[in-house]
Design a protein that fits this description.
Elements: E1 3-10, E2 14-20, E3 28-31, E4 36-39, E5 49-55, H1 57-67, E6 72-78, H2 82-93, E7 101-103, E8 109-116, E9 119-125, E10 138-146, H3 152-166, E11 169-173, H4 176-181, H5 183-191, E12 195-199, H6 200-208, H7 219-231, E13 236-240, E14 246-249, E15 255-258, H8 271-284, H9 289-303, H10 316-326
Parallel strand pairs: 1-6, 1-10, 2-8, 6-7, 10-11, 11-12, 12-13
Antiparallel strand pairs: 2-5, 3-4, 8-9, 13-14, 14-15
Helix pairs in contact: 1-8, 6-7, 8-9, 9-10
Length: 327
């Protein structure tokens, strides 16, 4: 029997441990000029609180889409340790089927995330994986292809072939391993992408192979980045820029800007994933570009208002109410 989905997200899944530090403490200090958080090696430091949450780009977006009313599932690989059980249970709670989640002997991906004064530092272990994904007996309208480490090229190619066989649209959000490989290795994927999601620094890495030496947040500069990216083949280019808002270059070459949705950030992990989930769900519902950006921005603002990438993700009713109250 073929299982039908609105969206299949393809990428990684992790278990994240969040440690929230007190704003002030006599055993560490923060240098405002350099951004360095310093403590003495060997210290024992009490934290304000800790939380365990499922994470990973593909998992976060799958949860976001499911809450927004789409039938979404995750294609990823985990280990067979105790964290893999937590991951599968977390997916089940979000009504996400685990048919495409492969369990292999060994450790699951794990991250420790230190939260301090609204920002985070991530220590992550990404296990080298085969990513031998199989798409038997499934069908989908959309593929969300995101960051993969390990043997990612074969998995990417298999995903692209599956998308073509389904005539499925592709939303693409490459990550660190893909940037390191260079844009030439990604050309075929750009040419088959309907929506490309990147933040400004990622856009610079693809175009220039490094982050710009001078931080330039002007609309004209981001517009040029989007135009260059669209030349690689993607129909729609979405660039997020944190507190400075988001930008979209649509299929007709029209450039759109939306300021950041208001909210009080507590922890910024998963903001980009929340934006992508909101934008993609609104695209699935065939809403105008500005509304897609509003859905993404509202979802991201809610996500960063809680600890972890997924607790703050909104439902369809919640996101519509949040946007209505803003207007």
């Amino acid at each position: 029997m073929v299982r039908n989905y609105d969206v299949i997200t393809v990428g990684g899944v992790t278990m994240d441990a969040f440690m929230k530090l007190h704003d002030t403490h006599d055993k560490y200090h923060f240098d405002e000029k350099t951004g360095e958080l310093c403590f003495r090696h060997g210290e024992k430091i009490n934290v304000e609180r800790y939380d365990f949450c499922m994470g990973g780009d593909a998992a976060n977006v799958a949860v976001g889409l499911s809450r927004l009313g789409l039938k979404a599932t995750l294609c990823a690989e985990t280990g067979d340790d105790e964290f893999s059980i937590k991951i599968r249970n977390a997916l089940a709670r979000e009504n996400i089927e685990r048919l495409l989640v492969i369990q292999k002997p060994g450790r699951s991906n794990f991250s420790v995330i230190i939260n301090y004064k609204g920002d985070r530092t991530i220590f992550s272990e990404h296990v080298d994986r085969e990513n031998d994904f199989q798409f038997a007996d499934v069908a989908t309208k959309y593929i969300y292809l995101t960051s993969l480490s390990g043997s990612w090229e074969k998995a990417y190619k298999k995903t692209l072939d599956f998308a073509k066989s389904q005539n499925a649209k592709i939303a693409f959000n490459p990550g660190g391993s893909q940037f390191s490989a260079g844009k030439e290795k990604l050309q075929e994927f750009f040419e088959n992408t309907d929506i490309l999601f990147l933040n400004k620094e990622e856009a610079e890495k693809i175009i220039f192979n490094h982050i710009a030496e001078k931080d330039n947040d002007k609309d004209e500069y981001v517009h040029k980045l989007a135009v260059e990216l669209q030349k690689f083949g993607s129909k729609i280019v979405v660039i997020t820029n944190g507190q400075d808002g988001s930008y979209t270059l649509d299929e007709d070459g029209k450039f759109h800007f939306l300021e950041m949705f208001p909210g009080k950030p507590i922890e910024r992990t998963g903001a980009g994933d929340a934006f992508a989930a909101g934008f993609l769900a609104a695209s699935f519902y065939d809403l105008p570009i500005k509304d897609r950006m509003l859905w993404g921005s509202a979802n991201a603002a809610s996500a960063v208002g809680q600890i972890g990438a997924e607790p703050g993700l909104l439902t369809k009713d919640q996101i519509e109410e949040k946007i209505k109250s803003r207007i």
